[in-house]
Amino acid sequence: MGDGSTFAEVFDDALFPNADPPAVTLDPANVFDQDDATAVGTRVGADSREPRFDGDTSRLPAEVCWTLQALLAAPHISERDRTYWPVLLQHGDVLRSRLSELGLILEVNHEHRYAFTRQAEDPSPHARIILRAKKLSLAASALALFLYQQYLTTPEEPVVATGDMGDHMMAYKRAEDTDEKAFRDKIAAAIAALEKAAIVKPIPGTDRYLIYGVITSILTADRVEALQRQYRAIARGGNTLAAVSEDDRDPADGEDTDENA
Q1: C-beta separation of 96 from 142 below 8 A
Q2: Residues 151, 157, 162, 165: what is their CA dihedral angle, to the nearest 10 degrees?
Q3: What is the pLDDT of residue 134?
Q4: At what angle do helices 138-153 and 221-235 cross, to 10 degrees?
Q5: Proportion of the chain above pLDDT 70, given as a percent
Q6: Domains in the chain, start-ordered, CATH in brackets?
Q7: Does the pTM of the predicted model rise above 0.90?
Q8: What confidence score (pLDDT) does residue 223 get?
Q9: Residue 121: partners with Cβ closer than 8 Å, 6 or more residues away
Q10: DSSP letters of 179-201?
Q11: How far apart are CA 42 and CA 29, in angstroms?
Q12: What does 24-58 look like in DSSP terms, one character per residue?
């Protein structure tokens, strides 16, 4: 990088400057448990509704209610979610309608096989925000860009080693920055942020991470281009935020990032 860019500028707490990721929750682990003993592998009948608790007045089958809850509570659900994904495919219309009642939009990507909810832009003064804003740090966005490229290279086996993520981020370390421990702590924090956002998931018993297909929604082509311009500006020694001109800004810049409660 150029001499005008400091360690602090690259790894500061600036928020994802040109991209708005989808819903983020703090504890997605139970949603992505692939060993769920209650996995639903068969179609849910419309007349299979039974009360889930005293006072349950829903007219939807229990499995549809649970899938609706997952769409509200989780960052996303994917084909790997055997409990929810088949139900979503079968009952997508009713789920979309229920979410719409709350001012939310259901996004389903059939190519990469994932779904998530995002906040609708309702101009009414009576509308309420259900999904709260949260954005990724600049360091985490730099790592997300690397993972995006890795995912596109091997979408059928999107796995990345911790060491490879660290090696990529070390390219941002200037020779005169001598505090390597602080730098590696920043890298670890960036990885943890992406894990919290359910963009990656550690593979038990290994030092590798699975990259979720939802990263293709977080980093659209426009956002990838904007981030690449920003990192080229860092390399030239420009300020990480000021180097992005008005013409370079993503059309979605300034909007809140959806975060599930």
Answers
A1: no
A2: -20
A3: 67
A4: 120
A5: 70
A6: 7-19+136-254 (1.10.10.2260), 25-133 (no CATH)
A7: no
A8: 81
A9: none
A10: -HHHHHHHHHHHHHHHHHTTSEE
A11: 24
A12: --S--TTTT-TT-TT---SPPPTT----SSTT---
Helix (H) or strand (E) holding 98: helix 92-101
Q: Which of 117-121, 123-127, 151-155, 256-260 has the lowest mean pLDDT?
A: 256-260
**Residue 49: count of CB within 10 angstroms of its CB:** 17
Q: Which of 165, 129, 150, 156 is nearest to 261 (CA)?
A: 129
Are the CB atoms for 219 and 144 separated by under 8 Å? yes
| Cα-based distances in Å from 23 to 26, 232, 261 | 10, 28, 9
The Cα–Cα gap between 159 and 151 comes to 8
How many C-beta neighbours within 10 Å does residue 248 have? Answer: 15
Residue type, 60: L
Task: Give the whole-angstrom CA distance, residue 230 versus residue 50.
Answer: 54
Which amino acid, residue 145?
A: L
